[in-house]
Automatic annotation (TrEMBL):
This is Formate dehydrogenase beta subunit. Keywords: 4Fe-4S, Iron, Iron-sulfur, Metal-binding. Signal peptide: none annotated. It holds the Pfam family NADH_4Fe-4S. The keyword Iron-sulfur applies. Its cofactor is FMN. Belongs to the complex I 51 kDa subunit family. The keyword 4Fe-4S applies. Residues 432-477 form the NADH-ubiquinone oxidoreductase 51kDa subunit iron-sulphur binding domain.
């Protein structure tokens, strides 16, 4: 007799937004129904995504050999999977082997994303079983100064755009004198091709909560906010539940784990304005005002939310903190190269065969990401350009694909790593249209506070149109470069200051799309 009818078999079906969009709920329901028909005891666990989106919904079965993966699974595939004996890890057309042995996963260094796709996101027991809250317990046993020093020594830098050292921000807030301090997580994630923040919030929310709690203890803050765009309903719902569970179990709220320290956490929903990814515009939004950039100084670290000292970090920065406190600064710093310490979850999107999330230590090349992990373009045509760092990132040509993924190496060629998202284009792309899109995006999303961004982007669209139409092209190109210089040096924030990066990179590296081959060396 088949022992599957006697023992409960654990089957994992992701609850991540990507999997849900591809029918994961229907697949889970079909598995439960089919198991009932066949008298098989199945325990369905709704885990997070492993980040291999081309295989979603990815169904996993717990076996003696480890978790065995099948994907992409459609609900119509379910009866055939049962017939083939997938509950025992048997062969099938959708069989991907032992999940951990899939090359895409096996060749990663998953530190921040170690639990993502493995655990039930809302099971605190799961979180604790996989090194959860070890970092917080260690932090509670240290002085706040020592916690800040650990983050400084780790070399962790902002995982948003500017790559500013996280520990320096914390040290500034810790040293500020105030009756109230805040910790704010910027989870706006408005960059094109990015989804790592969403995956953390949906697939491992306790990690973010732990990271923010450690930050609060380090700087003396008692209140925190997670700023999430309204387009992330699943993330908001999961975070809200996780905060309630952590509070109930004593990991948040008053007297955290009996330490006498308090930290309360709330989710604040943004309306989806790209400019609110800028830290001061985000603070305005949290305060209930229109999202407009503030002039600096004063720095938010000294006068931030409601005028009080505030730690503002990108989600991945805060999510990287628990493992630093759990295993030590040196453990984290041993990954990466130069001043780019640790790992980054790179996100592959656009015209790419294997789109998904890849966490790697800094130092591999862009080409390795595109070919070894991405598998080349989805269309099968040559990759012509890659935009990294969101809609304000430079368009990189083939000649730059061997650049190491390192903050300084990218800065040296006028590019940026930013949030780690990359969008791939094959050789059918029109780079003049992409340059125009960048300018138009800035015109639409500008908060309007400064003239170079508000007016410059609108004029920029007009100038690019004239270049493409060959209306006094040499003069218009000169005007576009001058306009970009004004935007870079005169804008109040990175919105206007970085919009010229994609525009000029397209003009410099792909001049033929503008009808100007002679401009290639410009």
């Amino acid at each position: 007799m088949n022992t599957q009818t006697l023992d409960t078999i654990t089957v994992y079906v992701p609850r991540d937004s990507t999997a849900l969009a591809l029918g994961a709920n229907d697949v889970a329901a079909a598995i439960a129904t089919e198991a009932g028909k066949r008298g098989v005891k199945v325990k369905l666990v709704r885990n997070g995504s492993r980040g291999m989106f081309w295989l979603e919904p990815l169904v996993e079965v717990a076996t003696d050999a480890g978790r065995v993966a099948y994907g992409p699974v459609d609900m119509s595939d379910v009866p055939g999977l049962f017939d083939a004996g997938f509950l025992a890890g048997a062969a099938h057309a959708l069989h991907q082997g032992v999940t951990e042995d899939i090359a895409y996963l096996k060749n990663q260094e998953r530190l921040t994303f170690a639990r993502v796709g493995v655990t039930d996101p809302l099971s605190l027991d799961d979180y604790l079983a996989y090194e959860g809250y070890v970092g917080l317990k260690n932090a509670l046993a240290m002085t706040p100064e020592s916690v800040v020093q650990q983050v400084l020594d780790s070399g962790l830098r902002g995982r948003g755009g500017a790559a500013f050292p996280t520990g320096i921000k914390w040290k500034t807030v810790a040293g500020a004198k105030a009756s109230q301090k805040y910790v704010v997580c910027n989870a706006d994630e408005g960059d094109s091709g990015t989804f790592s923040d969403r995956m953390v919030m949906e697939d491992d929310p306790f990690m973010l909560i732990e990271g923010m709690t450690i930050a609060a203890i380090a700087v003396g803050a008692t209140e925190g906010y997670i700023y999430v765009r309204s387009e992330y309903p699943h993330a908001i719902a999961t975070l809200t539940q996780a905060i309630a569970i952590a509070t109930e179990k004593g990991y948040l709220g008053d007297n955290i784990l009996g330490s006498g320290k308090s930290f309360r956490l709330e989710v604040r929903k943004g309306a989806g304005a790209y400019i609110c990814g800028e830290e001061t515009a985000m603070l305005e939004s949290i305060e209930g005002k229109r999202g407009v950039v503030r002039a600096k100084p004063p720095l938010p670290a000294l006068e931030g939310l409601f005028g009080k000292p505030t730690v503002i970090n990108n989600l991945i920065s805060l999510a990287s903190v628990p493992i630093i406190l759990a295993r030590g600064a040196q453990f984290y710093k041993d990954y990466g190269v130069g001043r780019s310490a640790g790992t980054l979850p790179f996100q592959l999107a656009g015209n790419i065969k294997h789109g998904g999330l890849v966490e790697k230590a800094f130092g591999l090349t862009l080409r390795q990401l595109l070919e070894d992990f991405g598998g080349g373009s989805e269309s099968g045509r040559p990759i012509r350009a890659v935009q990294m760092g969101g809609p304000l990132g430079a368009y990189m040509p083939q000649s730059q694909f061997d650049t190491p993924l390192d903050y300084e190496a990218f800065a040296a060629i006028g590019a940026m790593i930013g949030h780690g998202g990359l969008v791939v284009f094959d050789d059918t792309v029109d780079m003049a249209r992409q340059a125009r899109y960048a300018m138009e995006f800035c015109a639409v999303e500008s908060c309007g506070k400064c003239t170079p961004c508000r007016i410059g982007s609108t004029r920029g669209v007009e100038v690019i149109d004239k270049i493409v139409a060959n209306q006094d092209r040499p003069q218009q190109i000169h005007l576009l470069r001058s306009l970009c210089d004004t935007m870079v040096n005169g804008s109040l924030c990175a919105m206007g200051g970085m919009t010229p990066f994609p525009v000029l990179s397209a003009l410099n590296h792909f001049p033929e799309d503008f009808g100007t081959p002679s401009e290639k060396a410009a």
